[in-house]
Amino acid sequence: MKILVISAASLFLSLGGAAVAQTTTVVVPGEVKTYVEKQDTPSVTFEGDVAVGTALPDTVEIHTIPDQPDYGYVVVNKKRVLVNPKTRTVIEVIK
Q: What angle do CA 58, 64, 69 make, to 5 degrees?
């Protein structure tokens, strides 16, 4: 019985930790969004949904943002997308 209770508690805690990790939000500086919105960059086609957390393939060129090494951008399926250039994951889809 103790083993069952300990196992259930471990499972609950591990799932709770995963839920907390998924709710992390990134606060993007306003000047980053302003810069990206002003760029005249051609759109690339990407199969599938482009959402926060999506990893972009190496074939998609990520553009740099001056003085902002933690952010990159790309226009995908006619949507401006902020990307972490190190992991290639989408941080935010700009409306």
A: 105
Q: How far apart are CA 36 and CA 78, in angstroms?
A: 13
> How far apart are the C-alpha atoms of 77 and 47, rounded to whole Å?
9
What is the reported pTM? 0.71
User: Tens digit of pLDDT for each residue in 44-70?
Assistant: 999 988 999 999 999 999 999 999 999
Q: Can you read off the two tokens belonging to residue 6?
A: 């300990």
> Which residue in the block uniquely carries the two structure tokens 């760029």?
39
Residue 38 has a CB neighbour count (10 Å cut-off) of 7
Kindly give, in sequence order, each residue whose CB lies less than 8 Å from that of residue 93, ignoring residues fewer than 6 positions away.
Answer: 50, 51, 52, 79, 80, 81, 82
Handedness of CA 41, 32, 59, 26 (dihedral sign): negative
Short-list 75, 28, 23, CA closest to 53: 23
